[in-house]
Amino acid sequence: MKIKIANTRLKKTLIVVTGAIIVTIVIVIALISPIAKYLIEKNSEKYSGRKIVMSWIYVNPFTGYVHISNLKIYESKKLPGYKTGDSLFFSAKGVSANFAMLKLLSKTIEITEASVDQPKGIIIQMNKKMNFTDLIKLFTPKKTRTIPSPSPSPVHFSILKIRIENGTFIYREDVTPINYFIKDVIVESTGKRWDADTMAVSFSFSSGPASGTAKGNITINFKTMDYRVAGVIHKFDLKFMEQYLKGLSNYGNFSANLDADIKSTGNFKDEEDINARGMLMLNDFHFGKNPGDDYVSCEKMVLKIDEMCPKNHMYIFDSLSMTHPFLKYERYDYLDNLQMMFGKNGATISAAYADKARFNLIIEIADYVKVLAKNFFQSDYKINRLAIYRGDLKFNDYAISEKFSADVNPLFVTADSINKNHKRVTVFLKSGIQPYGNFTATLSINPKNKGDFDLGCTIQKVPAAMFNPYLVTYTSYPLDRGTIEFRGSWNVRNGIIQSVNHLVIIDPRRTKRIRNKDTKWIPIPLILSLIRERGNVIDYQIPITGNLKDPKFHLHDVLVDLLENIFVKPATGPYRMEVKNMEVEIEQSQALSWKMRQGSLLPDQEKFVKTLIDFLVENPDASINVYPMNYAEKEKEHIQFFEAKKKYFILLQNKNTHVFSVKDSLKVDKMSVKDSVFVHYLSNQVNDKMLFTIQEKCNKFIGSSMVNNKVSQLNKQREEAFMSGFRQKSVQNRVKMNATENNIPYNGLSYYKLTYKGEVPEALIMAYRKMNELNGEVPRLKYKNDRKKNKNAL
User: Fold this and answer.
1) In sequence order, what are the beta bridge partners of 425?
2) Number of domains in the chain
3) Three-state DSSP class for 259?
4) Of 271, 356, 539, 793, which is the most exposed, with the fewest CB atoms less than 10 Å away?
5) How many CB atoms lie within 10 A of CB 363?
């Protein structure tokens, strides 16, 4: 009986004790969470310098589980321009961690699992400092000098599993300014044990404001700072780089996206200690004045790396290719397009480099690329294939009296196996020249000696009239005929040159002198009479010897030809005059050229049109097709100049537009568009500092609609002037006027192209026959084939 009572009492005691323990646990759990929340929020600024708030915290000291809901950490009070309580530094929907409680007894803090749900972090850069610099200092152990004593057993820290889910991280820099963020951030790691040196992390994220994703993994050895990384980037928008560009330039637009698949090992302490392989691809790259005006662009640039290790002097590339690269260089009255953007002689870039306290990602990338590439030519390098497809190199010169433009397009460059260990590296280049011509070149170079190379190049079918803007500016005489060809051969060994250069200009012909205040005068008629040979060709061999630093040009052939032309050519005067007359006869039978802004027929043109009318009257079955070829770009340029100068002249002379006379028109024609007072007036009228050329300013001042109307009126005037005589003789129905075609004519002038149906004028037939006979005679026979190649130039 006593035993039974004792058992009953023991059970009651156990129940009471167990219940008390459970109640105590519940009370502890129930109280510790609000207490923890209270203590953290109350003392957060005291110990961390930042205000911390949360919706709730759950702490279970028995299982080691902690969870914080809606955590918010605000910026430090010491952060310039940001008030605590107003600006968030970090927030998360949920933060959880599991602690191994039993291991605390062995002085080991081990988090078996930690997760952050929907974190949002804001990184603010102030010059070289960051908004989390204070936290780094806070948790960095202070070094103090003390008397050596037995070291206590260390506390070990391990974190075994980490996961960040759906994060967003924002980067701001107010000086430049920069505002960028990434989203959908996922980070996973197996963590790091206290007795291990390495930590592996996998990550993925998307571009915040635009398109693109990135993912990969990285392993870091915190003892040696060695790393191993593998990353894949897909169509990652690089528009955010434009914000850094503003710190280097006065203006500019940038856009591109990046694809990459890179694997690399290296060390954070040594920039050159990197060994990378993989692929980089830059797509839709555009950089220029504005989105519609690129200075540099590229459809695609691909670099495939087999091995790149600067420290070991290894640069092995499978291929480097560019598809449709574009480069535009322009000269203005003041500076050029690149100096307008980056300052005179790159002053804006130099200033950015000099400001060491200000961070610029473009400068950091450029400096790192310099480090990687500085020993390239002293290393073992190899590029299995180098290629440029459909390149486009454009040059515009606005610094002369009228615009000059040339375009190397489409450009193709190929080179196989560029290898330092090879005896020779050969590069092939082939391109068109716009508006007319083509260019080919072959370069064979010794990769171990830059002064050892062979270069051969050929330029063909380039119209001499293409250079009229320079000829008019510096001589006053344009050309309306002539084809330029050049062949050069350079053999250089150890810097010693043996070069042969052959320049041929076939049938150059100058027109009447243009007299205005924009032009200088050089006696081109006299010069042409001296340098042209009997066959109306300029043909010179110009050898070059010496060395690359001091080349010597041999002009023996030039001097001999000059003497020959002075003493021998006069005897062939009648022959040359007959050739010229036949050329004029053929040209006038096939085309009628118009000077810029010319709306009526000149006396010689009236005579030619009368000949056509008589031909149709005498040959009832014959008809003529007329194809108007309009040099629209140049016509508009001349109209812009004239109309802008006209408005300035009327204001200057206090005239009425209704009394603007022919004499006034001639005065306006001769005015210089480069006159400083006119340019100052024009600049004040348009009031736009982003217009760098007289052409742009005149167009804005006059208005593009007015210019287009003037061009349309001019085309109608020309058609009326041409057709008037045909109507008077009632043969206009046998003259078909086709639609106007806008192009760049070979002779540099707008013109009417004429073709005949049925009968052909006898004079034209006879002229062709006579021209063939003349081309077969000695003075012109040598260049007969060249003339055949260029017979359709007009």
Assistant:
1) 445
2) 1
3) strand
4) 356
5) 17
Write out the H or E segment, with its range, that includes residue 215. Answer: strand 213-221
User: Is 275 within the bounds of a domain?
Assistant: no
In degrees to the nearest 10, what's the CA dihedral of 329, 331, 335, 340?
A: -40
Around Cβ 58, how many Cβ atoms within 10 Å? Answer: 15
What is the reported pTM?
Answer: 0.85
Burial of 479 from C-beta contacts in 10 A (0-12 / 13-18 / 19+): buried
Six token digits for residue 313: 């002097």
Task: Report the chain's mean pLDDT, rounded to a whole number.
Answer: 85
For residue 142, what is the DSSP state? Answer: P
Q: Which residue has the tokens 């996206």?
A: 257
Angle at 363 between CA 359 and CA 368, to 5 degrees: 115
DSSP-assigned letter for residue 422:
S
Q: What residue numbers bound the domain in which 657 lies?
A: 574-789
**CB distance 444 to 475 below 8 Å:** no
Mean pLDDT for 670-684 is 90
Alpha-carbon span 412 to 699, nearest angstrom: 35
CB 464 within 8 A of CB 508: yes
State the pLDDT at residue 794.
Answer: 42
pLDDT at residue 141, rounded to an integer: 62
Distance of alpha carbon 129 from the chain centroid: 32
Question: What pLDDT, on the 0 to 100 scale, is given for residue 25?
Answer: 61
Q: Does residue 389 fall inside a structural domain? A: no
CA–CA distance, 87 with 94 (Å, rounded to integer): 19
Name the burial class of residue 712, with classes exposed (0-12), middle (13-18) and buried (19+) by CB atoms within 10 angstroms of its CB.
Answer: exposed
Name, in order, each residue with C-beta under 8 angstroms of 690's C-beta and a sequence gap of 6 or more: 251, 289
d(CA 600, CA 592) in angstroms, rounded, equals 12
372 vs 568: CA distance, rounded Å: 64
Under 8 Å between Cβ of 301 and 334? no
Q: What pLDDT is stored for residue 768 in this prediction?
A: 54
Q: pLDDT digits over 306-341, tens only?
A: 999 998 889 999 999 999 999 999 999 989 999 999
Is 33 contained in some domain?
no
pLDDT in tens, 351-386: 888 887 778 888 888 888 888 888 887 888 889 899
Under the banding of pLDDT at 50, 70 and 90, the label for residue 604 is confident
Long-range contact set of residues 94-100: C-beta below 8 Å, sequence gap at least 24: 94/67, 94/68, 94/69, 94/70, 94/118, 95/67, 95/68, 95/71, 96/65, 96/66, 96/67, 96/68, 97/65, 97/66, 97/67, 98/63, 98/64, 98/65, 98/66, 99/64, 99/65, 99/66, 100/64
Distances (CA, A) of 600 to 439, 668, 721, 736: 39, 19, 6, 19
User: In the chain, count of helices (H) and strands (E)?
Assistant: 19, 32
What DSSP designation does 143 have?
P
Does the pLDDT of residue 793 top 50, yes or no? Answer: no
The rounded distance, in Å, linking the Cα atoms of 335 and 329 is 11
Burial of 13 (0-12, 13-18, 19+ CB in 10 A): exposed
Question: What's the rounded mean pLDDT across residues 602-625?
Answer: 87
Amino acid at 661: S
Mean pLDDT for 761-778 is 57
Confidence of residue 20 (pLDDT cuts 50, 70, 90): low
What is the C-alpha separation between 745 and 754, in angstroms, rounded? 14
**For residue 691, pLDDT beyond 60:** yes
In a domain, 119, yes or no: no
How far apart CA 333 and CA 679 sit, in angstroms, is 11
**Beta-bridge mates of residue 99:** 111
Instruction: Provide the token pair at 764.
Output: 């034209």
Report how far apart, in Å, the C-alpha atoms of 649 and of each of 50, 243, 323, 516 are.
70, 44, 49, 15
pLDDT digits (tens, 9 = 90+) for 446-496: 888 888 999 999 999 999 999 999 999 999 999 988 899 999 999 999 889
701-710 pLDDT, tens per residue?
A: 999 999 999 9
Contact 55, 69 (CB under 8 A): yes
DSSP β-bridge partners for residue 186: 204
